[in-house]
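Might you be able to check the backbone structure tokens below? Thank you kindly.
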Amino acid sequence: MNHVTKRLATLGLMAAMAAGGASAQSNLTAETSSPGNSPHVSILHLAQVASAAGIADLQVQEGQTLTNSALNVAEGRTDIAAMPLILGFLMSKGRGPYSKQGEAGAELAANLRALYPYNAGAYGLIALESEGIDSWDELKGKNVWNGPPRGAALVNARQAIFLAAGLKDGEDYTGHQANWGQLPTLLVDGSMDAFVFPLTFPSARAVTMQAAGSVVMVSTPKEVFEGEAYQKIFKAPGNVPIIVKWDDMGYEDGKGIRLISEDGTFRGMGTAFADVVHADMSFDTAKALTAAYIASIDELKAKTAYMKNVGVGMLDPDASGFCGLNTLKYHPGAVAAWEEAGVTVPDCAK
């Protein structure tokens, strides 16, 4: 359980139940993304364990735009939301999707607190074998789906392509954008030559694409990944390095999904996430929610195969994306829960 013993996990769940006993009938609101990725699974899992432990009932809204969800938490309209860490940084600076907030963004971002970290997978190139695309260079002149119309995912996908092959959207390839909900159809309808988006391992999106034929995944070349330019992106808020060996990716040889890599290892830029709450959430509630989550990490990983590869509960700054330019801190109640479970919380994230 990643530095958390079963004994401590059991104690954590007992603590969660005890702490939540006084507010067992309370209701909390939560927002998350569309099904098929780690932010969705994480929030729904929290809702399940929080209810089972008698902490609170979570009323979850799925399929939300997380840019708006983070703002809703910061403004006190929603209790809990999945959030890519880059949003907290952009909010604090009043930039990007939060340009309307301007200088007020810093005050809003200061209202956000994390319960626990994870990531949403690593950016990779994926295509049908029939397209004959075996490298990032071969995206030149192609139609490439690279994310929703706005937000961090599109920026990161464009960046991943440029760093891997020096290709620019609109100049070297034609980028196409659509909402995440439209992606399952695009994966199988033949309208795109290739896709660049975050992949979990195993990936439900890759499995969906298999309905149209065998699939190839292309890792970021090792030389590029380890180069100075690519390593710099991991110093930017919200980016984390993800390295997964083929044997751990959840696929079988000869079963319709093939990895292209120099050494049988997938490498890519990952998007750091956390489930966040308002700073005004009570210490006891934040602690109880986090303790229940910690106690059930093994259950979470067993429930959804790819959750074992998304850094659940890994608080190290390099793996979680916390500290550095990232402004997000853990809620004091969450800090207490992690420390009681025997996990060190970095001082820079408290």
Observations:
- Residues 1-24 have pLDDT under 50 and may be disordered.
- The longest helix spans residues 6-20.
- The chain has two domains: 6-119+274-349, 121-270.
- The CA atoms of residues 36 and 289 lie 23 Å apart.
